[in-house]
Design a protein that fits this description.
This protein is mainly alpha-helical. The protein has helices at residues 3-11, 13-19, 28-42, 45-53, 66-88, 98-106, 114-134, 136-143, 146-168, 194-211, 217-236, 285-313, 326-342, 354-359, 366-378, 390-405, 416-432, 435-451, 461-474, 476-483, and strands at residues 94-96, 171-173, 181-183, 348-350. It is built from 20 helices and four strands. The N and C termini lie far apart (67 Å).
Length: 485
């Protein structure tokens, strides 16, 4: 290195040298702007995560507080985004994973309590750290066909969208065996409530913004839908669906009313931090193992695929998909699950919305520092999140589900050996209201259809083991009864 070059490196400053800003063709200003754009595109998680997690009774009848979940979500997102930026020096922001929090809210807490569910998230994170540190995580990831990896994302997208339709009242149970669901309340076949109309308006508005590639389109849609809801509530006084006296208002807001009560600024309530329990004495061993196993796979493949895609978008990956500091990135991602479980905000993982900041020019971990700091500041404004009605947040669920479903375009469905497992993965998740069921159906069908059509040698031995694990998962009830656990 010439003296002139050495002098240039010194003049760049510590931030430039540490994050390799100039080397990656970026500037400090670009990184700051990219970090802010990433926050704007994913800030909805501070609203959406408590919508999904709070109000859902666990097996003991306990629920999580909306405001506490919101504050914990912002805290975990801020801490993990900054940590990942410092350690891995990549512009991949972190927050509570949508597919994972849905799995916790609609599956896991049907078996265990919320503190136990968060302990399972922590165990999942520790296993991911171990797998990443030993190199096994990369080995397992490579063993699963890319078609199934993409199908898992597609299935979770359908599942999240279905939850959004149900939460908004757009789709509801008919109370009959056929058809089991229908359009509108009680499946009457038409939209009959103002909150559901606002869901439709928010969905269309957000869809237009996203289609026009407006940065922060989801957040703008959420804010716009909420403002409309606030105005409508102020004029018509719709009220909640379930009143304090126990009476039912069929046309009311399902969970949260769009009414601001008190000061929008508040000291964050972090009462959920550390609210975990590793006492699984009331549930079977097989049940706990399978819940950890399923959560591990959901977390595992979603994060690995997202990081691979983002690294390619940032032009940081080589032809094999490897990107800088991949091992440390995978380890820190596992730590995200531990932090998410420890704060009761669900597993914290890499967010695909980081692509917005990358599109703005972010190429280094400095952008993460900016995003993380803003998330920490957001903790002090959690009262604002409680005025967002479920019907408005449901529109964002449908939009995110559609985004995840788009991955199906990357799957070649010309071979029925591929088509059937992909279809089962994507269809079983929403229809059975279980991410675990969809993944298991896809893995088992892939192994069987390849084995009985002369392609057994093409199935990696690790996939056989994983599929066997899912067979046990589907039969865990009889197995637990047989073992007396």
């Amino acid at each position: 290195m010439s003296n002139a070059t050495q002098q240039q490196v010194k003049e760049r400053g510590f931030l430039d040298r540490y994050f390799e800003i100039t080397k990656r063709g970026s500037t400090i200003g670009t990184e700051v702007r990219g970090g802010l754009v990433t926050f704007v595109t994913m800030a909805y998680i501070v609203i959406l995560n408590p919508i999904i997690l709070s109000g859902k009774e666990d097996i003991a009848g306990n629920i999580l507080d909306f405001g506490q979940v919101s504050a914990a979500t912002a805290l975990a997102a801020g801490v993990m985004t900054i940590l990942f930026g410092i350690v891995s020096r990549l512009p991949f922001a972190f927050a509570a994973g949508l597919g994972i929090n849905a799995f916790l809210a609609f599956s896991v807490v049907q078996e265990v309590t919320w503190p136990e569910a968060m302990a399972i998230v922590i165990i999942n994170g520790l296993l991911i750290v171990l797998l990443a540190a030993t190199g096994l995580r990369r080995m397992i990831f490579d063993a699963v066909p890319v078609q199934l990896k993409l199908a898992i994302t597609v299935g979770i997208g359908f599942f999240i969208a279905f939850i959004g339709f149900v939460n908004s009242g757009f789709v509801d149970s008919t109370g009959q065996s056929s058809p089991p669901v229908g359009l509108g309340p009680s499946g009457v076949g038409f939209i009959a409530t103002i909150p559901t109309v606002i869901f439709v308006v928010t969905l269309v508005l957000t869809g237009i913004l996203v289609a026009k590639k407006v940065k922060g389109g989801i957040l703008i849609g959420l804010v716009s839908g909420t403002l409309i809801a606030v105005i409508v509530e102020a004029i018509w006084k719709i009220g909640p669906k379930f009143a304090d006296d126990g009476s039912l208002n069929p046309g009311g807001w399902s969970l949260t009313e769009p009414v601001l009560q008190g000061n929008p600024f508040a000291i964050p309530d972090l009462g959920l931090v550390g609210a975990v329990s590793f006492d699984f004495g009331k549930v079977g061993v097989v049940t706990v193992i399978m819940l950890v196993f399923t959560l591990l796979f959901t977390n595992f493949f979603d994060a690995m695929g997202t990081m691979t895609g983002l690294s390619r978008e940032a032009q940081l990956a080589d032809e094999k998909g490897n990107f800088p500091r991949i091992k440390s990135a995978l380890v820190v991602e596992g730590v995200g699950a531990v932090v998410g479980g420890g704060t009761s905000s669900s597993s914290t993982t890499v967010f695909i919305e980081s692509g917005a900041g990358i599109g703005e020019g972010a190429r280094t971990g400095l952008a993460n520092i900016v995003t993380g700091v803003v998330f920490l500041l957001a903790m002090f404004f959690t009262p604002l999140t409680q005025i967002v009605p479920t019907e408005v947040a449901a529109a964002a669920l449908v939009i995110v589900g559609a985004m995840m479903m788009s991955q199906i375009s990357n799957i070649d469905l010309g071979d029925f050996r591929v088509l059937l497992p992909v279809f089962l993965t994507a269809a079983v998740m929403p229809l059975s209201y279980s991410i675990a069921n969809g993944i298991g159906a896809g893995f088992i069908s892939w192994v069987l259809i390849h084995a009985f059509t002369g392609r057994a040698k093409q199935v990696h031995w690790l996939l056989w083991i994983v599929s066997l694990g899912f067979v046990i998962f589907f039969a865990r009830g009889p197995i637990e009864a047989l073992l007396g656990v």
